[in-house]
Amino acid sequence: MTELSTPEPSQSTKHPPSSPHLPSAVFCSRLAYRSIYSDCSHPPLIHTVNTPSPHTVMAQQDNAARIAEAKKQAKDQPQKAEQTFKSVLEQGPGKSDAAARDYENALMGLGELYRDQRRTNDLAELVQQIKGVLSSLAKAKTAKLVRQLLDLFIPIPDSLETQITVTKSCIDWAVQERRGFLRQNLETRLVSLYMQKQSYYESLTLINRLLKELKRLDDKLVLVEVQLLESRVYHALGNVPKGRAALTSARTSAASVYCPPLLQANLDMQSGMLHAEDGDFNTAYSYFIEALDGYHAQDETEKATAGLMYMLLCKIMLNAGDDVNNLMQSKHALKYGGKGLDAMKHVAKAHTDRSLEEYETALADYRHELASDRFIATHLRRLYDNMLEQNLIKVIEPFSRVEIAHIAKMVGLDVHQVEHKLSQMILDRVIIGVLDQGQGCLEIFDEPERDAQYDAALNTIDKLSNVVDVLYTNQASLLE
C-alpha cells in the first residue's frame, strides 16, 4: 500500500495576508466580525452618535455667556442688552437642546426687558413675531412659552386692551396649528380678561362654549377653572344663586381630580365671598382662613393680602373689635402688612367708635386700597348705611318733631344727604313719620299698637275653616 501524503497547505490558506495599511489588531477584529456574521444575509446596523463639533460647542457656550451678561445689563444698559437678545434670537432655536434652551432664555430675557420698561407694543410685536418659530417646537414647550410671555403683560398698567388683542391673536394661531389644549387655556385666560374689562356678556358667551367642549372631553382640571370663572361672573353681576350653583359644580368636578393648591385656594376664596353675600360672616371667615393658608404656601403675596383683608372685614361686620386687634398682631399680618391692612384697621376703629366722621375720613384717606376691591367696597358701603341708620335713630329718638338741619349737624353730614337717607328709612318703615320739606322738619309718629281684635278674628276664621273641612269630609263619607 502506498502511503498517502497530506499536501502542504498553500500560502493563501495558511493565514490571510496582513494589510500594510491596517494595524494587526484592527485587521483581526475585522476577521472576527466577518466570521461571526458570515451566515447573515445583512450585517447589523452600526449607529453612530453625532457629537457636536468643537466650534458648535464653543458657539453655544458663547451664547449662554452673552445671555447671562445681557440680563445683568438689562437695567443699566437696556439698549445693549436688547441687541444681544435679538442677535441670539436671529440664530433660531437650532437642533440641539442647548441651542433651544439659549433661544428660550433670550426670548424671555427680551420679554422681561420690555416688561420692565413698560413697552407694551414692543412686547406684543415680539409675541407676533415668534409664532412661526414656535410652530417647530414641541407642543408642551410652546404652550409654556406662550403662557409665560402673556404673563409679562400683567404688571404693565393700562395694558388690558393689548392683552385681549394679543390673546385673541394667539387663539387664532392655536386654531390654525390645531393645538386644542393651548387654545382652551388661552380662551380661559381671555375670560379672565373680559371680567377685568367688565364685559360680562362676552365672558358668559365664551364660558358656555368652553363648558360644552370640556364636558365632552372630560377635562376636569380646566373644567374646574372655567366653572370657577363662571361663578365669579355671576357674582359680579349680582346673581348670587347662579354663582353659588356654578361654584358647587366646580367643587364637584374638583373632587374627582387632583386640584392644585392655588386653584383650591381660589375655590375657598370664592366660597367665602358668596357666604359673606348671604350675611354668614362666620362661615365666610373660615373659608378665608383656608384661602390665606393656600396663598401663603404658594407665595401669592397680593392674593394673601386680599384674603387677610377679607378676614378683617368679616370681623368688622360681626362687631368683633377685639378679634380685629388680635388679627392685626398675627404672623400673617406682620408679613403682609401695608396700607391695605392699615385701612381696615382705621375702618374697624371708626366702626367701634360709631363715628361717621372717622369712617368717612378712613374712606377718603385710603380710597385706592378700599375702593379698588369691589367686594370690600360693597360691604363697606352697606356697613356705612347701617351705621348711618343707627346714628339717625339715636338722634331722632327723643323727638316727635325735629329740624333736618339739626339732625345733620348732630351726625356731621350734609343736609341733603341726611334728607335722602331719612326718606329711604321712611319708605323701608325703619321709622314711622313724614318729611315736611316746606318747614324742613321731620315729624315722627308713635308706632301704632297692634289691635288684638284682628288676631282674634284671624284665629276665629282659622277655626271655622277647620270645622268646614271636617263637615265636608263627613258629608262625603255619607254619600259613598
UniProtKB/TrEMBL annotation:
Where is composition skewed (Polar residues) in this entry?
Answer: 1-16
Which InterPro entries does its entry note?
Answer: 26S_Proteasome/COP9_Components (IPR050871), PCI_dom (IPR000717), Rpn6_C_helix (IPR040780), Rpn6_N (IPR040773), TPR-like_helical_dom_sf (IPR011990), WH_DNA-bd_sf (IPR036390)
Q: Which PROSITE patterns match?
A: PCI
Q: Which residues form the PCI domain?
A: 280-449
Task: State the residue spans of region: Disordered.
Answer: 1-23
Gene Ontology CC terms:
proteasome complex
**The keyword DNA-binding is assigned to this record:** no
Pfam families recorded? PCI, RPN6_C_helix, RPN6_N
Keywords annotated in UniProt: Proteasome
Q: Which domain of life is it from?
A: Eukaryota
Q: Which family does it belong to?
A: Belongs to the proteasome subunit S9 family.
| Name listed for the protein in its UniProt record | PCI-domain-containing protein
Organism annotation:
Aureobasidium pullulans
